[in-house]
Amino acid sequence: MHKAPAGLTSSVKVDDKTFILQTEFLTAPKSKKDVEDKLSSGGKIVTSVAVDGQIVHKVEKVLHGFVESSELFSSIETTIKKQHISVARLIASRPREFINSVSEIKISPADRLGVIPGVADVIEIDKEFSQIRLQQHKLQRPVIENMEKIRNLLVAISQNTRLGRLKKIVGAIEDRKFLLTGCGGKFYLLNLKDDVDITKLLEDLEMAKL
């Protein structure tokens, strides 16, 4: 398994507002041949800017090819650093634009969940738990069926106990770590990164304004 290029997280404080910047390399789904050849496919470098728990800006740079050499690996990490610094400088020079955008942009719970460190992907699960929708996110049928059972258990517990709505379930299926959580009557499946700190993730989830 290839090690992912290191990401960056920092904060910029301007006008009594703290901007949280997170830049990371997200790999694209791998084909069967890529897996057999043990290659990591291309992906994108994403910088997210959050204020008061809301994502107010995103910058994405798409990369093509395979992360199969130390030279390319180093190049990606350099690009991550440059993009991160560029966005930080933009905030420092024009903070008001970002602050004003907080009230202008409606941020979805999925976007807020997606910026939490350790989260690789967020899928909004509809009421019927659409299998087609999950299959589009590259989940295999056994995984889908297990997710459906867990989701149904979550609903059953919420409806038949005095505890109220169950907020989250963390688990693993095969080598996939995941978290299920509910917000505003909707359910979200969070695919987690291999090196996720579950304790820190749950703390950040509690702090998120959903």
Secondary-structure blueprint of this entry?
Blueprint: E1 8-14, E2 17-27, H1 32-36, E3 43-51, E4 54-63, H2 70-93, H3 95-104, H4 109-114, E5 119-125, H5 131-135, H6 141-160, E6 168-173, E7 176-183, E8 186-192, H7 198-207
Antiparallel strand pairs: 1-2, 2-3, 3-4, 5-8, 6-7, 7-8
Helix pairs in contact: 2-3
Report on the structure:
There is one protein chain. With 210 residues, the protein is of the alpha+beta class. The chain has two domains: 8-103, no CATH class; 119-207, Beta-Lactamase (2-Layer Sandwich), CATH 3.30.450. The protein has seven helices and eight strands, in the order ββαββαααβααβββα. 20% of the residues are buried.
In short:
The chain is α+β, with helices and mostly antiparallel strands and 210 residues long. The protein is built from seven helices and eight strands; from the N terminus they run E-E-H-E-E-H-H-H-E-H-H-E-E-E-H.
Features:
single chain; alpha+beta; Beta-Lactamase; 2 domains; 4-stranded antiparallel beta sheet; 7 helices; globular
* Rg (C-alpha, Å): 19 Å
Instruction: Report how far the terminal alpha carbons are from each other.
Output: 34 Å
Q: What is the element string, with H for helices and E for strands?
A: EEHEEHHHEHHEEEH
Strand order of the largest sheet: 1-2-3-4
Spans where pLDDT lies below 50 across 5 or more residues: 31-40
Helix amount, in percent? 25-40%
Structural domain count: 2
**Structure classification:** alpha+beta
Mean pLDDT: 71
Distinct helical segment count: 7
Major sheet, described briefly? Answer: 4 strands, antiparallel
The backbone outline, from C-alpha atoms, is globular
How much strand content do the residues show?
25-35%
